[in-house]
Write a structure and sequence with these properties.
With 167 residues, the protein is mainly α. It has 7 helices and no strands. Helix 3 crosses helix 7 and helix 5 crosses helix 7. The longest helix is centred in the N-terminal third of the chain and has 20 residues. It is globular. The C terminus is likely disordered.
């Protein structure tokens, strides 16, 4: 057996009671190096997943936008079966009135804005939602890197170009 774990609550209480480390014989450096090797080997596989799909504004794969989308998908959905969750679905976002997706209840800051989503407005929104529409209920601090915002916008357009109702 590589290691033995005693029933003491913490490592410090074990050290006082038994006089030795709680994890006896476990090669910590080996475990750390194995974990690092696993991460290094897994990263290239993640980057090459969408290598065939390119953004409209360059040769960079949309996987960068997909990685950024991971932060959004806890509250939003996009694609053929998208529905409203705690945030509205984001299909056909460009050209849609701000705060006007049918069936979703928006904050007054968004529903009363009278704006229409464009790439430029979406870029400002993703940079700092609170500065653009004060009083929004969206809990998101923004994305500071312009290249990251552009990759996310490209991803949103690519994945949400058809409305959920038409599919």
């Amino acid at each position: 057996m590589w290691f033995t774990i005693c029933s003491h609550v913490s490592t410090e209480s074990h050290r006082r009671a038994c006089g030795r480390s709680r994890y006896s014989g476990f090669p910590v450096a080996l475990a750390r190096n194995c974990l690092l090797a696993l991460v290094v080997l897994a990263l290239p596989a993640c980057d090459s997943a969408d290598s065939g799909t390119r953004s409209a504004h360059g040769d960079e794969p949309l996987s960068r936008g997909a990685a950024l989308w991971a932060r959004c998908r806890t509250c939003h959905q996009i694609g053929p079966r998208a529905r409203h969750v705690s945030g509205p679905q984001l299909n056909q976002l460009i050209g849609r009135r701000v705060g006007a997706s049918p069936g979703f209840r928006y904050s007054e800051a968004l529903s009363g804005s009278g704006e229409v989503w464009t790439r430029e407005l979406l870029d400002q929104w993703l940079a700092s939602p609170y500065k653009l529409f004060r009083g929004t209920s969206m809990n998101f601090g923004g994305i500071s890197d312009p290249a990251d915002r552009e990759a996310l916008i490209d991803y949103l357009i690519e994945r949400g170009d058809q409305s959920a109702e038409s599919l």
